[in-house]
Design brief:
About 30% of the residues lie in helices and about 35% in strands. The chain is globular and about 50 Å long. The chain binds guanosine-5',3'-tetraphosphate. One of its GO terms (molecular function) is xanthine phosphoribosyltransferase activity.
């Protein structure tokens, strides 16, 4: 997605060895115009796929996922990282280890929102080590859903996430693929969409 790549080049900042900061348009402040375009690109790709739900994980996944769901006219569900008092239904859970934060969290989705009739597209803002995506896939498989793919805004292709997701047989569709960083500049490779 050319406009996304241009925006990363313009506003992204490389932090240390392996982190791309995009908090001015994606992970903290949000650019709705860019998000709408992201929604349209994924919706165009999947408009005939018979999707029934978009699934993501809080917090930053919620933003692109909501725009994709809006374009397709289907609900979006986000996995929660902490249980709250209103979550009284049966929960589907998966343990997700964060290499960045060095902690394991249990993510959860109420069982009532997913069924064997669902065909799901997973959407997330970043694909790094793939643990969040694998956790979501595990929950969706437990619920008996069909998983049509994993849609990613920014994939860090030098980390293991894409290979780990593809090993499950589920295809990955990334709008921007980062090959690496060179002297503070982002080096891209050809994206999927
Ligand atoms: P993984 O899910 O692919 O295994 O990723 P990892 O454990 O390495 O990353 C944990 C968190 O850090 C995730 O957000 C992920 O989106 C984010 N992250 C990973 N690499 C980058 C990066 O280069 N830039 C930015 N901005 N974020 C990155 P999270 O903990 O779920 O956070 P949030 O969505 O609640 O903010």
């Amino acid at each position: 997605m050319e406009s996304l790549v241009a925006r990363i080049k313009q506003d992204g900042t490389v932090l240390g060895e392996d982190i791309l900061k995009v908090d001015s348009f994606l992970t903290h402040q949000v650019d709705p115009k860019l998000m709408r375009e992201i929604g349209r690109v994924f919706a165009e790709k999947f408009k005939t796929a018979g999707l029934t739900k978009i699934v993501t994980i809080e917090a930053s996944g919620n933003v692109p996922a909501a725009y994709v769901a809006e374009e397709l006219g289907i609900p979006m569900i986000f996995a929660k990282k902490a249980k709250n008092v209103t979550m009284t239904d049966d929960l589907l859970t998966a343990d997700v280890y964060s290499f960045t934060k060095k902690v394991t969290s249990t993510i959860q989705i109420s069982q009532k929102f997913l069924s064997e009739q669902d065909k799901v597209l997973v959407i997330d803002d970043f694909l790094a080590n793939g643990q969040a995506a694998l956790g979501l896939i595990s929950i969706l498989k437990t619920a008996g859903c069909e998983v049509a793919g994993v849609g990613i805004v920014i994939e860090k292709s030098f980390q293991t996430g894409r290979a780990l997701v593809e090993e499950t047989g589920i295809p990955v569709f990334s709008l921007a693929r980062v090959a690496g960083f060179d002297q503070g500049q982002v080096v891209f490779r050809e994206a999927d969409l």
